[in-house]
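Hey, sorry to bother you again with one of my protein questions. I've been staring at a protein lately and its backbone has me curious. I owe you a coffee for this, so here goes:
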Amino acid sequence: MTSQQRTFSTRSVAARIRAWRARLQAGDAGAVAMLFAMCGSMMIGSMCMALDAIDYAMTQGRMQMALDAATLSSGANLQRYGSPTGTNLQSWQKDARAYYDANNPAGMMGFSMPDASFSATLTGAPATGQTIALSASGSLPLLAPKFLSTKANNSTGGSGGGGTTTPDTSTVSASNTALRMPQSTLELVMVLDNTGSMKDPANGVSGATKMSGLQTAANSLIGDLLPSGTSSSTNKNYIGLVPFASTVNTTGALPATGSWLSTTLPTYNTSNISTSTWNGCVIEPRTNNYLSPEAYSPTDTRKFQRYYYNVPSSKLKMITYSPSSRYRTCNTNGSTTTTSSSVPVTLGSSGAANQCSYPSTGQGTGIGYQFDQTNSSGQTLTQNSGCLGTSMTFLTQSSSTLTAAVKKMTPSGSTIIPVGLLWGWRMLEPSWSQNVAGTKNGWTSTDPSLPKPTDGTVQNLQRVMIVLTDGQNQIGAAGSIPNTLYFNGLSGVGTNSLAAPTVLRADNTKMTNALTDSSELHGGDPVDDSSGNGAGYPDDANSYQQAICTAIKAQGITIYAITFGASASSSSARVNMQTCASPGNYYHAPDNTTLDNIFQQIAGNLGVLRLTQ
């Protein structure tokens, strides 16, 4: 073979190798493309199946929640119908569907449920017990069939072959039952937070306020337990209302001239203080200057006293700085000074208590001895400053009276949960009834037997308290007049003492040196900077609250405790209320919708109704 022939042969082999390599590369690309197409379809299909599974779980969970709420509400609704038949049964069933739709509207996540797929049945009689059974079923559209084959061909050949269709919807179902026991007598008191923070959005960002959500939820509960058209002969439910902040207002609920209330004013500065202008707020009795977590009674020798605010007996000095830049440096050049020995007194709209005169006694964050201001026109303080404007409503069966009272609730003031708890307790204690305390001394009511006796003469008597707050105890704010640390319904007028030797703190020390600001626990500093407004530490107030909750539960009263809103999400606030609640009766509502559902659930659980499945 010549050299030229060898060269040609070598080139020919190389060309063939390159051709083979090109063919292999082209084959690899096609194989990769085919493999990617197959895997991509599988990945999309798997993702759709996962999304379908999530949608199913969410839909079924929401469906079950709505059905539970509808079952409990339907059970409460039976008070209006008794043992319904015919058109009344149809109306009750229609109401049951409406309760369900309110919590799971049609079309949610594409879920659909025809009327025929919702069932509400009732068996038994009111005298022996009734069983309520609700069930619901509907279809949820699926994503996976839109990407996967809708036909799975099972044909073996020939014209006789057949196929099965992959469903494009999934069936979602839920069911439950509840037992409604024979009618009991229910005395329920709602102890509701009316503090200033209740005007904030429930979610902490924007939207409806906490107060509006609370009013809606409270009115829903009232409607469930006191349905319109029911009479006292068929409905044995009574509801009372105790709005609270740093005080509780007794106007209209208790006689202002009753012997439960002392005619002696608290010793502070009584100049220009008149009982004729008293607005209804009171302070707790004391025994040898000590508080005690008790309900007391109107006939007790330890009496409640009228709450009032007044300036210190040494007078209140008001310094107006001019120009306002001198206020920041406490430069009194060009300032004017006035003094007041009693209320009413008008303060500037821009200023703070003791801003430029922190007393050596350490009361700079407490009682206002001097008000440093940049203008002299603003708020006018009276003896009722710091007294909550919305009064209590005693136990009643009038839903219109209660809803009107709920509508009047207005956010104002600081948080002292123990004050609300104590007055809620008294609204359930028989010693406060007219039959026991006397016509002009007990609760103002057309039924002098309320609250009912607990001696067994009233069968199936249930006493229940719902207490709701949007945070923990937060007493007072430094630089305010009057400072709630020293003027409230618990520690009293002109004092921040919570001394209560029968109460133990978490560390088992006695509260003999307790204060509203717990300065004895924090190096003598009465200001809690973490609160954002210079309020006192809540330690001792929390300890006192737990002692009250323990005493209430020991009397056979059931407590439902609720923390509400984004601002109540801290662990300390939630633990404080969870410890207060009866076992299993603590709830947290981060928003208005959840709160309404919680109130509906409580309404269904109260008295005679229990979910059994």
